[in-house]
Amino acid sequence: MGVPAESVDDEGGEETSAARSMRVAAALARKGGDEFAKPGRLVEVRFVKGQSLSLTASRLLALMILTAGGDAWQDTTHRMRKSDIRRGHKGNERIVDMLEELHRTLFAEDDKSWRGKRATKRFNLIQASWEEVEDNDKETGWIEWQFTPDARRLIQESETYAVMNRQAVLGFRSAYALKLYEEGALRLHRRQPVWKVDMVGLRAALGIDPDKYADFAQLRRKVLTVAKAEIDQLAHFTVEWQEIRRGRAVIEIEFRFVSKDAPAQIATVDELERHSKGRKARRDDTVEKVVASDSPLPHSPTVDGADVANVLKKVTAALVSSDAASSSGTELWARFPRGRLHFGATEEAAREIGVRYGGGWDVDMIAEAYRDNMGARLNTLSGTKLEKSWKGWCEAFFNRRGRP
Length: 404
Hints:
Elements: E1 6-9, E2 15-18, H1 20-31, E3 35-39, H2 40-44, E4 46-47, H3 55-68, E5 78-81, H4 83-86, H5 93-104, E6 107-112, E7 118-123, E8 126-131, E9 142-147, H6 149-157, E10 161-165, H7 166-171, H8 175-187, E11 194-198, H9 199-206, H10 216-234, E12 237-246, E13 249-259, H11 262-273, H12 279-283, H13 305-326, H14 345-357, H15 363-374, H16 383-401
Antiparallel strand pairs: 1-2, 3-10, 4-6, 5-9, 6-7, 8-9, 11-13, 12-13
Helix pairs in contact: 3-5, 3-8, 8-10, 11-16, 14-16
Family: Belongs to the initiator RepB protein family.
Pfam families: Rep3_C, Rep3_N
Organism: Novosphingobium soli
């Protein structure tokens, strides 16, 4: 990416470099919220033939990277609560399974042998882990881990990165969808947001077993179509692909990733905040609609005016609390700035996003187009939804027009 690395001194006085991906990870960690950066070298590292990570283990690895933040490249231990992993599961046996899977899964990269010959290097990402064993209370406890020297090297060398959303990562139900989401997030802001890969490379990247989906029609139906449906619903971008053939055989696939526009970004934020139950039905548009009826519900208890007032108070309080929580504890995004993005905290926050994701276009011009596109809907947005909508518009503006 052509960005100089920052230099820090380690305990031995030797100079090491924190690559751009780690600087971005540290900045996102300071900001808080659900976004985090996964180093590009970790996204692109391939599975050893015949191996892959399950969906739950892939999620755990993502949470480990999120938790480590800008220190992931350091030779140190990292820790997180088990409750941050379980997402409501009562037992901890699945955490044990996930940790052991991460320990035994091998990854591969092209390297040189001691004779300078082409070679394949195989390695793990997790060097050691500790899990607290509770006697009585299974709802508490921590895990601790160390990344291997090879993992830290890949992290340290990564000048590229994928900005991902924690809620989206935890929302995927297909391991293939999660992996393709990572590949898309890595390439989204490049001049050409595409990933062209042959079939061998696709299987290695997504961890598709060599014996599965030998027929491409099966792979398209079981892997690509499922992954696209989930990504289009949960990610801040959409994915399309083109199949490149030699004769009748598909030899390569070209994926193209496109940022969602502002209304689609809002719909995605809404979906991530909803319960995962019924998500597939909403995606397939098969959710049953409740039709209002003039007939009273059978066996429904009567409610007097005082009870109704109390219920309304509780509902209003819950909505206010939810809205405050969704705004990430900040009032910066109470409304979108009405004038030029030059003065005040809100304007500066909006300008920072415009500069980062607008591809070099004049930020005030992007903001004016955003206001025109949103119209009256802009008055209904605040907090996280407004911030993500503005970010999505900047990304889409850049993707449609290219660089100025």
